[in-house]
Amino acid sequence: MGLPQETAAVRINRYEKAVHDADLATARRIAEALGVPLAFLYAETDTMAEAILTLGLLSKPEQRKAVADLKARLTESVATHGKV
């Protein structure tokens, strides 16, 4: 049994404005309703959220390859520039 749309809209607005924090179970339901990974809701920047969303669209093997590629680029950057 769900909430009436008006009640749900008010509650979501309070989460968006950080008036209330959603517990993990609620955040999981919101993520499922939006069709996004749970981590997307907790990303600290838009770029990180985009990366999480993009990785979430890939198959598990593609995710592993993408992460390995990013790690390789990071290692190369550190070796070349001496910093991240």
Automatic annotation (TrEMBL):
It comes from the Bacteria. One of its GO terms (molecular function) is DNA binding. Coiled coil: none annotated. Residues 12-41 form the HTH cro/C1-type domain. This is Helix-turn-helix family protein. It comes from Lysobacter antibioticus.
